[in-house]
Amino acid sequence: MGAWIRMIPDDEAGPDLREVLDLARTPHGTVDNVMRVHSLRPSTMRGHVILYRAALHDDSNALPTWLQEVVSAWVSTLNACPYSFANHWANAAHLIGDAERADAIRAALDAGQPETVFEGRELAILRYAEKLTLNPGNMVEADVVALRDAGLDDGEILEVNQIVGYFNYANRLLNGLGVTTDGDVIGYYKAT
Predict the structure, then answer these.
(1) Which CATH architecture has domain 65-177?
(2) Where do the domains of the chain lie?
(3) Is this model's pTM higher than 0.85 or not?
(4) Alpha-carbon 144 to chain mean position
(5) What pLDDT digit, counting tens, does each position of 66-85 carry?
(6) SS3 assignment for 109-162
(7) Which of 31, 118, 124, 159 fits 150 for a cystine, CB–CB 3.0-4.6 Å?
(8) CA 83 to each of CA 16, 121, 157, 160: distance values in angstroms, whole numbers, following the listed order
Protein backbone atom coordinates (compact mmCIF):
# COMPACT_ATOMS: atom_id res chain seq x y z
CA MET A 1 0.00 0.00 0.00
CA GLY A 2 1.31 3.40 -0.90
CA ALA A 3 0.02 6.90 -0.17
CA TRP A 4 0.98 9.98 1.79
CA ILE A 5 -1.83 9.32 4.27
CA ARG A 6 -2.64 6.25 6.37
CA MET A 7 -4.61 3.49 4.70
CA ILE A 8 -6.27 0.91 6.92
CA PRO A 9 -5.46 -2.71 6.04
CA ASP A 10 -8.22 -5.34 5.99
CA ASP A 11 -7.11 -6.88 9.28
CA GLU A 12 -7.59 -3.56 11.11
CA ALA A 13 -10.95 -2.66 9.53
CA GLY A 14 -14.03 -2.32 11.69
CA PRO A 15 -17.43 -3.61 10.52
CA ASP A 16 -18.46 -0.45 8.60
CA LEU A 17 -15.16 -0.24 6.75
CA ARG A 18 -15.14 -4.00 6.07
CA GLU A 19 -18.53 -3.71 4.38
CA VAL A 20 -17.30 -0.96 2.06
CA LEU A 21 -13.99 -2.74 1.40
CA ASP A 22 -16.00 -5.77 0.26
CA LEU A 23 -17.98 -3.51 -2.10
CA ALA A 24 -14.71 -2.10 -3.48
CA ARG A 25 -13.01 -5.46 -4.13
CA THR A 26 -11.83 -6.01 -7.66
CA PRO A 27 -12.51 -9.20 -9.63
CA HIS A 28 -9.09 -10.28 -8.26
CA GLY A 29 -10.41 -10.06 -4.68
CA THR A 30 -8.17 -7.12 -3.80
CA VAL A 31 -8.89 -3.50 -2.91
CA ASP A 32 -6.85 -1.15 -5.06
CA ASN A 33 -5.13 1.79 -3.42
CA VAL A 34 -7.36 4.22 -5.35
CA MET A 35 -10.20 2.96 -3.15
CA ARG A 36 -8.27 2.04 0.00
CA VAL A 37 -7.00 5.62 0.31
CA HIS A 38 -10.56 6.44 1.43
CA SER A 39 -10.36 3.96 4.32
CA LEU A 40 -10.36 6.72 6.95
CA ARG A 41 -13.72 7.89 5.51
CA PRO A 42 -15.67 4.83 4.27
CA SER A 43 -18.55 6.97 3.01
CA THR A 44 -16.34 8.58 0.35
CA MET A 45 -15.05 5.13 -0.63
CA ARG A 46 -18.63 3.94 -1.13
CA GLY A 47 -19.44 6.96 -3.29
CA HIS A 48 -16.24 6.55 -5.29
CA VAL A 49 -16.88 2.87 -6.03
CA ILE A 50 -20.43 3.58 -7.19
CA LEU A 51 -19.38 6.51 -9.39
CA TYR A 52 -16.46 4.59 -10.92
CA ARG A 53 -18.55 1.58 -11.83
CA ALA A 54 -21.38 3.72 -13.24
CA ALA A 55 -19.03 5.84 -15.35
CA LEU A 56 -16.79 3.10 -16.70
CA HIS A 57 -18.02 -0.43 -16.10
CA ASP A 58 -21.76 -0.18 -16.60
CA ASP A 59 -23.30 -2.67 -19.02
CA SER A 60 -25.65 0.00 -20.36
CA ASN A 61 -22.78 2.17 -21.69
CA ALA A 62 -22.95 2.32 -25.48
CA LEU A 63 -19.38 3.40 -26.24
CA PRO A 64 -16.99 0.52 -26.92
CA THR A 65 -15.17 -0.46 -23.75
CA TRP A 66 -11.76 -0.13 -25.39
CA LEU A 67 -12.58 3.49 -26.29
CA GLN A 68 -13.81 4.22 -22.75
CA GLU A 69 -10.44 2.99 -21.50
CA VAL A 70 -8.52 5.05 -24.09
CA VAL A 71 -10.41 8.17 -22.95
CA SER A 72 -9.51 7.26 -19.35
CA ALA A 73 -5.84 6.89 -20.26
CA TRP A 74 -5.88 10.13 -22.28
CA VAL A 75 -7.33 12.17 -19.41
CA SER A 76 -4.80 10.55 -17.05
CA THR A 77 -2.00 11.44 -19.47
CA LEU A 78 -3.17 15.06 -19.64
CA ASN A 79 -3.25 15.17 -15.83
CA ALA A 80 0.14 13.43 -15.44
CA CYS A 81 -1.46 10.75 -13.25
CA PRO A 82 0.73 7.64 -13.45
CA TYR A 83 -1.59 5.57 -11.25
CA SER A 84 -4.68 5.87 -13.44
CA PHE A 85 -2.65 5.72 -16.63
CA ALA A 86 -0.98 2.44 -15.60
CA ASN A 87 -4.29 0.75 -14.87
CA HIS A 88 -6.40 2.13 -17.69
CA TRP A 89 -3.76 1.91 -20.37
CA ALA A 90 -3.30 -1.77 -19.44
CA ASN A 91 -7.07 -2.19 -19.85
CA ALA A 92 -7.13 -0.32 -23.17
CA ALA A 93 -4.21 -2.28 -24.63
CA HIS A 94 -5.86 -5.55 -23.60
CA LEU A 95 -9.20 -4.58 -25.13
CA ILE A 96 -7.68 -3.19 -28.35
CA GLY A 97 -6.33 -6.70 -28.84
CA ASP A 98 -3.76 -5.68 -31.45
CA ALA A 99 -0.30 -4.93 -30.05
CA GLU A 100 0.79 -2.87 -33.06
CA ARG A 101 -2.35 -0.71 -32.95
CA ALA A 102 -2.07 -0.34 -29.16
CA ASP A 103 1.58 0.74 -29.47
CA ALA A 104 0.64 3.37 -32.06
CA ILE A 105 -2.17 4.70 -29.88
CA ARG A 106 0.11 4.82 -26.83
CA ALA A 107 2.76 6.72 -28.78
CA ALA A 108 0.16 9.21 -30.00
CA LEU A 109 -1.17 9.78 -26.49
CA ASP A 110 2.34 10.13 -25.06
CA ALA A 111 3.12 12.72 -27.77
CA GLY A 112 -0.14 14.58 -27.15
CA GLN A 113 -1.16 13.95 -30.77
CA PRO A 114 -4.22 11.68 -30.90
CA GLU A 115 -4.93 12.96 -34.41
CA THR A 116 -2.07 10.80 -35.71
CA VAL A 117 -4.06 7.62 -35.02
CA PHE A 118 -7.68 8.73 -34.65
CA GLU A 119 -10.17 10.53 -36.83
CA GLY A 120 -13.87 11.23 -36.97
CA ARG A 121 -15.94 10.23 -33.97
CA GLU A 122 -13.03 8.91 -31.90
CA LEU A 123 -10.91 12.03 -32.46
CA ALA A 124 -13.87 14.27 -31.61
CA ILE A 125 -14.24 12.41 -28.30
CA LEU A 126 -10.55 12.84 -27.46
CA ARG A 127 -10.60 16.53 -28.38
CA TYR A 128 -13.63 17.07 -26.13
CA ALA A 129 -11.89 15.17 -23.32
CA GLU A 130 -8.77 17.30 -23.72
CA LYS A 131 -10.61 20.62 -23.62
CA LEU A 132 -12.79 19.60 -20.67
CA THR A 133 -9.70 18.43 -18.78
CA LEU A 134 -7.38 21.34 -19.51
CA ASN A 135 -9.82 24.25 -20.01
CA PRO A 136 -13.12 23.39 -18.32
CA GLY A 137 -14.16 27.03 -17.99
CA ASN A 138 -13.93 27.49 -21.75
CA MET A 139 -16.48 24.81 -22.66
CA VAL A 140 -19.27 26.03 -24.94
CA GLU A 141 -22.32 24.44 -26.55
CA ALA A 142 -20.36 24.09 -29.78
CA ASP A 143 -18.15 21.50 -28.05
CA VAL A 144 -21.19 19.24 -27.62
CA VAL A 145 -22.47 20.05 -31.10
CA ALA A 146 -19.11 18.89 -32.49
CA LEU A 147 -19.68 15.51 -30.82
CA ARG A 148 -23.18 15.27 -32.32
CA ASP A 149 -21.80 16.23 -35.73
CA ALA A 150 -19.26 13.40 -35.33
CA GLY A 151 -22.13 10.93 -34.86
CA LEU A 152 -22.58 10.65 -31.08
CA ASP A 153 -26.05 10.70 -29.60
CA ASP A 154 -26.76 12.58 -26.39
CA GLY A 155 -26.47 9.44 -24.25
CA GLU A 156 -23.00 8.76 -25.66
CA ILE A 157 -22.05 12.40 -25.10
CA LEU A 158 -23.10 12.03 -21.47
CA GLU A 159 -20.98 8.86 -21.18
CA VAL A 160 -17.91 10.69 -22.48
CA ASN A 161 -18.59 13.61 -20.15
CA GLN A 162 -18.92 11.33 -17.13
CA ILE A 163 -15.73 9.38 -17.92
CA VAL A 164 -13.79 12.63 -18.34
CA GLY A 165 -15.29 14.11 -15.18
CA TYR A 166 -14.65 10.96 -13.18
CA PHE A 167 -10.99 10.73 -14.22
CA ASN A 168 -10.38 14.39 -13.48
CA TYR A 169 -11.72 13.70 -9.98
CA ALA A 170 -9.76 10.47 -9.55
CA ASN A 171 -6.52 11.88 -10.96
CA ARG A 172 -6.64 14.75 -8.48
CA LEU A 173 -7.42 12.38 -5.61
CA LEU A 174 -4.49 10.15 -6.53
CA ASN A 175 -1.95 12.87 -7.31
CA GLY A 176 -3.01 14.96 -4.30
CA LEU A 177 -2.49 12.09 -1.85
CA GLY A 178 0.55 10.49 -3.49
CA VAL A 179 -1.23 7.20 -4.14
CA THR A 180 0.93 4.58 -5.83
CA THR A 181 0.21 1.20 -7.37
CA ASP A 182 2.38 -0.53 -4.71
CA GLY A 183 0.60 -3.78 -3.90
CA ASP A 184 -2.12 -3.35 -6.54
CA VAL A 185 -2.91 -5.72 -9.37
CA ILE A 186 -2.50 -3.51 -12.45
CA GLY A 187 -5.40 -3.60 -14.87
CA TYR A 188 -8.92 -4.89 -14.54
CA TYR A 189 -8.36 -7.76 -16.94
CA LYS A 190 -5.11 -9.15 -15.56
CA ALA A 191 -5.37 -12.86 -14.78
CA THR A 192 -4.99 -13.73 -11.10
Answers:
(1) Up-down Bundle (1.20)
(2) 65-177
(3) yes
(4) 21
(5) 999 999 999 999 999 999 99
(6) HHCCCHHHCCCHHHHHHHHHHHHHHHCHHHCCHHHHHHHHHCCCCHHHHHHHHH
(7) 124
(8) 27, 27, 26, 20
